[in-house]
Amino acid sequence: MSQDMNGYSAVKVDEEIRNLPVYLDSGRVSVYSTGQFIYVSTDFGFGVSYGGSWQLNIVVPADYNGVVCGLCGNFNGLLEDDFLTPSGVLAPSADQFGTEWMVEDDMSYDCGGGDIPGYCQDESTTLISQALCEIIRDSQGPFSFCHGSVDPMAYFNNCVFDVCISENSNDVLCHSVQAYVSACQSANTVVYPWREIASCVMDCSSNIPNSHYEVCGTDCGHTCASSIDASCEHTCSEGCFCDEGFVRSGGLCIPVEQCGCLYDGFYYNIGEQFWDSTCSQRCQCFAPNDLRCSASVCPPTMNCAVRNGHRDCYSPMSTCTVWGDPHYITFDGAVAHFQGTCSYEIAQTCGNVTDNDLEFRVVATNRHRGNMVVSFVSAVDVWLSQHG
């Protein structure tokens, strides 16, 4: 799942981009959006909700007590051993704890957290942030009925810190308060309207046409997949919900007569064409639940594959490109830039080459042109020879 600038309308499943909702393994796993979250729901109690750049929640059933690990701890009921590293050692600091759980694929990036501004460590200099965040712990405020179910102090302290280091950003304040609202509603407690009090008004109609804001709403029965609507499993949440006469389709609100088609657990919009998982059928959604498929195959020179999130027939060939001041795009899509002025091996056969393959070698020579700062490809040499 990732944040979509046009609303949370699609996810990747096995590298393919899919519209929401998604129902896998006869509904044992559901992925759908409601309110401000994308939910992953399972029939064994595990669940994930993602609110874009500001909030991620993970729910695990009691069966996983003591057998999980990561930044969320080990779920054994003990606070003091939650900051264990993958090697089982207690991390000396939060920064070290986070570093130890870095995903290997991202090791090349500088993920340092930076220094905490000194002025945000002094209570006397956080008075403005405290005043802004006070709504969370106010015993007479809109969340007072939640205080007995969800301790507000951790959320208040985090709000003060985040608002302070963001120089009292209203956007950060709204997301901080929203995190507490989400926790309260997950605990099925009453939350009263708060956004006008905190200057956090949500403009639904501008961001999602044909929608309106509700502090405690649900999409249950109001989606294009209402017959198998997993959103009915959830308590209410705040966010943008479709106006009367409209239903949710991914991240949009559309007239019910514009709903698309369900096929093999996936939802397709009207007009959308797609291949089945083996590229043996080509299908198109013509109208609500009017899906038409016909037998089809990829041309002999193409392969059925998924590229950039889309399944289609693709040529197995690949292209490497060198251009400009030289920029390099490799056969697999990596990008590099350098201005050396020598001759370079651009591509050549390496490793196990069969007797039927031609061996090749391409060398490009870069030279300065116009000035001594930049260089361009000035000559290309190509060699071909029969292996063996």
Automatic annotation (TrEMBL):
Principal localisation: membrane
Localization in the cell: Membrane
Keyword Signal: yes
Gene3D superfamilies: Laminin
Domain VWFD: 1-112, 318-388
Cited InterPro entries: Alpha-tectorin, Ser_inhib-like_sf, TIL_dom, TILa_dom, VWF/SSPO/ZAN-like_Cys-rich_dom, VWF_type-D
Keywords: Disulfide bond, Glycoprotein, Membrane, Signal
A single cellular component GO annotation: membrane
Pfam families: C8, TIL, TILa, VWD
Protein name: VWFD domain-containing protein
Native source species: Cyprinus carpio carpio
